[in-house]
Amino acid sequence: MLERLHRLVLRLRHSAIAFPLALVVAALMLTISEIGYHQAISQLTTLVTRGQTRLELSHLVRRLSDAESGQRGYLLTGQPDYLPPYRDASVSALASLAKLRGFYDKMSDASGGAQLVLLDSDVRTRLSEMDEVMALCESGRSDTARALVTSGIGRDVMARIRAQTEALLDAQNTLVNRGLAYVFDTLLLNRVGVTTMTAVSLLVLGMYLRQRRQSDNERRDQQRLVREERDRLEVQVAYRTAELTQLARHLETAREDERARLARDLHDELGALLTAAKLDLARMRPKLLQAAPELLPRMVHLAEALNSGIALKRRIIEDLRPSSLSTLGLGPALEILVKEFAERLGVQIDAQIDAVALTPSSELTVFRLVQESLNNIAKHARAKHITLVVRPIAGVGAAVADAAVVDALGAAPEHVEVRIQDDGAGFDTGKVGVARHGLVGMRYRVQAEGGVLTVSSQPGQGTAVHASLPAAVASAETESAQPPCAQTPSAHVASANAN
């Protein structure tokens, strides 16, 4: 039985009609309770009226008895002291009859009302008889009055009055008992209803608390699973990021090594070939002047071509691997780069390049950053004026530092600020195509060195590139002693278009 009840409760709990059914049951119990309450109030009001009716019936009989006592006392003694009680009892009896008529009209008791009419007639008959006796006595006809009293007419009327009163009292007692039984039944029904609703409420509350506990447990389990999945994804993302970072560093190292190898090959082999050709031309020139002077213009042109080839070779080598960076340092290398760029494009460049302490890989990153930024300006910006600033930042509170860079770095002992700003066309940084990796390459190359790069630009208002890299520590001296080609620049992809 308990198992079947448990299955029924589970079925109702998961059913779609459980909540509407609970509402219907609650509404039904509330309606029954209200109906019972109003019926009980009505029945209690009727019971109060019936109680008052019984009291008035008893009062009526008592007043008639008081009137008879006053009548007999006056007849026997003739003293007028018996007259006021007699008159008061007569008036009070008539008043009781009026109250009884009101009570029966209020109760809408037709049967009792009919009996009350008979009682009213007998009471008035009895009062009229007693008034007649009192009138005879007051007129001096005491013998006639006594004869009328001893005739038994009043006794018979009084017997009918008592019988009618007893009948009315019995009827009222029966109705009172019936009303009390109804009130007790109503109270019992309300008690049963309240007990049932309390039990149902406790059951529903227990089911709700149990379901809520299950929901809380499920939610906690889901949150735990989400946290575990998030942690797993974070670990996987960190692992993949580390892999991609190592791959990017390896690719950049291979790229720089390949550039260094090409630079060496161009310097050694192509340089040797061009130098040998120029020396052979110099040895041939005196003989050709004597044997074939008409070939002199061709020789001059060939010498100029060899000089142009040597200059082109030197420029290609410098683009592949700036020798000035490894031989002269970052400051002179940047000055040479800025001077060549200004002469080639005919723009004004204001350069403030201070002495900074950076690791060789960070120096190469700064050089490539400036080189890439200048190339982007030449290709897209159409700028007339460029500002280059390279200087140290003594802590994050320095006024020279860019606010975004300072916010990103946090507390740090010393950093190097690099800022390239132009007055060119600018661009919308939020609409940079995903296939253009110049800005992304510069950003990740700076981040690989532990720095931060920000680019701010608006169409028609130029572009500003800010970078901040950590200054070199004492252990960097050992790294700087290595050959330039053996140093490993930590970067991603640098030589790409910024747009």
**How many angstroms does the end-to-end distance come to?**
79 Å
* Topology order in helix (H) and strand (E) letters: HHHHHHHHHEHEHEHEEH
Backbone structural class: alpha+beta
Largest sheet: 5 strands, mixed
Q: Rg from C-alpha positions? A: 62 Å
Count of separate DSSP helical elements: 13
What best-fitting shape do the alpha-carbon axes yield?
rod-shaped
Query: How many β-strands, per DSSP?
Result: 5
Spatial sequence of strands, sheet with the most strands = 1-2-3-5-4
Instruction: Outline the low-pLDDT stretches.
Output: 396-406, 408-412, 474-499
What features would you describe in this structure?
- The chain is of the alpha+beta class.
- Helix content is 73%, strand content 7%.
List keywords for this structure.
73% helix; alpha+beta; 499 residues
Reconstruct the topology from this structure.
Elements: H1 2-13, H2 18-77, H3 83-107, H4 110-138, H5 142-150, H6 153-291, H7 296-320, H8 323-327, H9 330-345, E1 348-353, H10 360-381, E2 385-393, H11 403-409, E3 415-422, H12 438-448, E4 452-457, E5 463-470, H13 476-480
Parallel strand pairs: 1-2
Antiparallel strand pairs: 2-3, 3-5, 4-5
